[in-house]
Amino acid sequence: MEEKLPEDLANLSELDEKSLLEVLTGRFTQNLIYTYIGDILVAINPFKYLSIYVKEVSVSLKSLPPHIFAVADRAYQSMLGHLATGPKNQCIVISGESGAGKTESTKLLLRHIMELCKANSQLEQQILQVNPLLEAFGNAQTVMNDNSSRFGKYIQLRFQNSSVKGAKINEYLLEKSRVVHQDEGEQNFHIFYFMLAGISTEDKEIYGLLDPTRYRFGKEDMVQAWRLKYAEVCNAMDMVGFEEQEKVDMMTILAGILSLGNIAFEMTDSDALKVSEASRGWLKATAGQFGVQEEDLLKSLTCTTSVTRGEAIQRLHNQQQAEDARDSIAKVAYGRVFGWIVSKVNELLAPKVDCDVELNEIGILDIFGFENFAVNRFEQLCINLANEQLQYFFNHLVSMENSFTHARFVPLFQDLFLTKPIGILSLLDEQSAFPQATDRDFVDKLNSKFKTAPNFEVVRNHTPLFTIVHYAGKVQYNASGFLEKNRDTIPANIRELFINSVTPLLSVLFAATISRTGTLMPRKAKVYLRFNFCLFFDTPHSLAVLMEKMFAASPHFVRCIKPNRSKQPDQLDSKLVMDQLRYNGLMETIRIRRDGFSWRPKFREFAERFVVTYMLVFNSVMSLSCGIRVCLILDCVSCCVDYRARICRRRYLALLAEIRRQRQAQREREEREEEEERRRRLELEQENRRKDCALFTAPPVLMALANKIIIPLVILLLLLVYLFMMLQATDEERMKEKQLKKTNTIRWFKEMQVRKLTRDGGFPSWFHGMITRRRAEDLLIDKPLGCFLVRVGQSREGFTLTYRGADRCRHYMVEMQSNGKYVILGEDRAHSSLTDLVQYHTQVGIKPFMELLTLPCGQVSVLHSTHSCRLFLLPGGNSNPESHKPPVLKRISDRRRRVEATQMEHKDDDPTGESRPFPRLYPSIRLAMREIQQIQQVQTHMHRRYRGDM
Ligand SMILES: Nc1ncnc2c1ncn2[C@@H]1O[C@H](COP(=O)(O)OP(=O)(O)OP(=O)(O)O)[C@@H](O)[C@H]1O
Q: One GO term of the cellular component aspect (predicted)?
């Protein structure tokens, strides 16, 4: 039999590293990957599938043993005020090194919270779809993790009472440099691979994309899995609400980034710079994909234009500068696409409630883990600083519980990084402001300022190196490129070029400014766009603001631990685990949790919540056992005597929650009694009034007649008349309202749906127009299982899919999203048309019963379509609703208009009549692709001849 190991490390009788490791290892071998330290959850990555996340677990285990769902449950219940405290914002902080399982934990938390607040709305599905979308654009394969998040995120879920009303994502520090450079064993962002693998041959031609192996920015081979991932990303964009045209524009920009990476430069004999012969086609392709003129693009790559005293001065680039310009365009374009996706998601998922409605919040912070590679660059410094700040937050909260430990946690980042004007970040900004300053100068400055600082070590080397002793260990940084990365500026000529692109999204992205958190702000930019280090950490919108938010909320911590470096299941490297426990401050935490208390309310909060409650429910407390009463009284007394000492342990919290529950029950009992009393008094009064009437002195026979027959009769008559009139009025109103809704739905259907649904002037056999629910059920009653029909809703703009189930008919609501996609409510898949939706569910069952559509219930009329269907057809059978126009641009240049006119011509050629959005590419793109392929064919031919194959 398996040994029963403690679930909470704070309960260990022997506390040393050995026993701690023994418990964790023992639990890990029993597949118990979660363990508590008080209310902190330690999660060891199993690197294998475990059946502990199935729906039954999340539903059945209310008070879960250590589990990620238990954290979600606690945060949710606390947010609602169902636990010890009143309703309050919550935040869940997930930390750990790269590959420890933070992103997976975030997904599980989100999933479970959505499960808890199930309101059967599409919003939950949309929120869940945000993750695959962000992962595709913000994650990449690294040596540490095949799906490593290359950005940090803080997801805010907003609730009104128990149901979710919206969500907001804050993204931090996307590692843009990955677009142009990947170290050995690493890859570019997933989306490039997904796109190249998943895009159809026809679309490849449209976007000007070639075989994946042709690109410098994405050098890996494609696999089948990426094709599926691409479909998943497209579906996520549809589900969240992206417009088709926006998707197309975005893909065009990604194609442009890929082509841009292939432009190479060379020096001519006369020492001038030119684009290499082999990559001239790529220059043309890039210009076509970005929707800019080839000459303008070339100019912006090969020289910088600056204006001095009204005079434009051109400075020619050398080869290195031209390559830097190329890479910086790619990085900025990608960074902005990512920022745009996030702001678009935020716009689509913003709560649609009155602004005076107060919303509660659960925030989930998933931020990159501490990193220490062979070469650590600017990005690692940013990441490690963020971790340093998080650790400070954690230490601060933990040390609050034990004043003795407070002094042990030195806020390194505050002293070394943030001090003004001599913190590392200030010095970096100061040096970045000097155009002539070099990375070496920056490191020299650091060496002279911090040579005696305890957390800084000088490195004597010809490369600009320096070492910082972080809470998690020593990290040596290579400062090459620090200044350039910190400047992160776009020269004015490049910005101008892209603002005038024919791709509206590109001009929006380059016209926008970047907020200090890195968020895209769609407004006029200054000449130079800056997003630098100090801005990030210094301003009211920075990570520091995030910290403020977190300090104001009730925190929950999940500490993820990586069991081994080889990402293997069932292997636990004790040293690696111990190191993580140590630098996470977990050893210290266990000690504190054992000795102290885990909940630290403010005195006022405590007094309001419990002391007062205690006084009020003194009577009910008397029914509790003597021991408990003593504990409570001691608590209250100590609370008044020493506020610091009154902080409640969990068992007290449970007890106090029990008292609150009893108090609530008592209040309800009292209210019931009051209500009873009021009713009794009312009855008594009525009785008395009746008696008074009886005392009225009229002739007894007349009185009896009036009392018993005439008056009741008249009252009855009046009542009947009144009722009749009322019924008629409400009936009329209801009829009018119903009719109005019906008319609106018919108009909606005629204007927006007919064209999409009809083929050759007729409707599909399963479509029955606007019939009632009853009629739909009658039609299906004698049909076999799986038979189905689709009807138009009578009171809402949407469809209903009626399905012949095993026991009865089921009605699934089909919603049309604002981007024109069709979704069955609660499903996680969006479809371009109703026909696609039906087709899809002939293969994939509809949740929750996984019902497959097998047989369409045909229309009964001889004319193939029922009366209700014909009602919708436009005269002549030819529906000609106004075609869907591409988004109107604010600043459409003449050039862009010409391009759009050509595209409109294309649309008219489309035999299906569907207005499919087109990328706004120059026709030259085809020429460019041909040119590239020809050059490559020549090269291959020569290569073969050289090898003697021919
Ligand atoms: N609970 C889990 N069950 C099964 N496998 C898991 C679990 N958590 C993590 N993994 C595995 O570990 C891998 C790495 O996890 P994850 O991407 O969540 O790490 P991370 O801490 O977010 O890393 P990074 O900081 O690099 O983004 C996952 O791709 C998955 O294969």
A: myosin complex
Whether residues 763 and 847 share a domain: the answer is yes
Residue located nearest, by CA, to atom 16 of ligand 1: 101
Indicate whether residue 104 lines ligand 1 (CB < 6 A): yes
Residues 710 and 800 both lie in one domain: no
Q: Is the CB of 10 under 6 A from ligand 1?
A: no
pLDDT single digits (tens) 862-907: 444 555 555 555 444 443 433 333 333 333 344 444 554 555 555 4
The terminus-to-terminus CA distance of the chain in angstroms comes to 71
CA distance 206 to 249: 12
Pick from 831, 853, 872: which residue ends a domain? 872
Q: Dihedral sign, CA of 194, 200, 204, 209?
A: positive
Residue 830 domain flag: yes
pLDDT at 346: 93
DSSP 199-239: S-HHHHHHHT---GGG-SS--SPP-HHHHHHHHHHHHHHHH
Q: What is the pLDDT of residues 408-443, one digit of tens each?
A: 444 555 667 666 667 788 888 888 888 788 999 999
The answer to whether the CB of 101 is under 6 A from ligand 1 is yes
Amino acid at the residue 10: A
Strands of 367-516 (E only): list them. Answer: 456-458, 465-470, 473-478, 513-514
Which amino acid does the sequence have at 737? E
Same domain, 661 and 732: no
Tell me whether residue 771 is in a domain: yes
Write the DSSP assignment of 636-684 as a string of letters.
Answer: HHHHHH-TGGGPPPHHHHHHHHHHHHHHHHHHHHHHHHHHHHHHHHHHH
> Does ligand 1 have an atom closer than 6 angstroms to the CB of 45?
yes
Question: How far is the centre of ligand 1, averaged over its atoms, from the C-alpha of 102 (Å)?
Answer: 6
Number of the ligand 1 atom closest to the C-alpha atom of 33: 1
Percent pLDDT > 90 in the chain is 35
Tokens of 409: 């946690």
- Residue 764 and residue 659 in one domain: no
149 lines ligand 1 (CB under 6 A): yes
**In a mutational test of the pocket of ligand 1, which residue from 147, 174, 565 has the highest number of ligand atoms less than 8 Å from its CB?**
147
Tell me whether residue 156 is in a domain. Answer: no
Of 75, 137, 139, the residue nearest 104 (C-alpha): 139
The number of folded domains in the chain is: 3
Catalytic residue list: 98-99, 103, 145, 148-149, 369, 371
Per-residue pLDDT at 218: 53
The answer, yes or no, to whether any atom of ligand 1 lies below 6 A from the CB of 387, is: no
848 and 779 share a domain? yes
Distance 103 CA to ligand 1 centre (A): 6
User: Among 692, 708, 740, where does a domain finish?
Assistant: 740
Q: How far is the CA of 48 from the centre of ligand 1 (A)?
A: 10
Minimum mean pLDDT among 129-133, 183-187, 896-900: which range?
896-900
The pLDDT, as a whole number, for residue 650 is 52
- Pair 717, 828 in one domain: no
**Stated pTM of the model:** 0.76
627 and 716 share one domain: no
H/E/C letters for each residue in 249-306?
HHHHHHHHHHHHCCCCEEECCCCCEEECHHHHHHHHHHHHHHCCCHHHHHHHHHEEEE
Is 281 within any annotated ligand binding site? no
**100 CA from centroid of ligand 1 (Å):** 6
Which atom of ligand 1 lies closest to the CA of 104? 18
Dihedral Cα 315, 317, 321, 326, nearest 10 deg: 100
Q: How far is the CA of 101 from the centre of ligand 1 (A)?
A: 3
Closest by CA position to 28, among listed 11, 50, 12: 50
Could you tell me if the CB of 102 is within 6 A of ligand 1?
yes
Task: Write out pLDDT tens, residues 907-931.
Answer: 444 444 445 666 666 667 777 777 7
Of the two residues 14 and 442, the one the predictor is more confident about is: 442
Residue 708: give the domain boundaries.
700-740
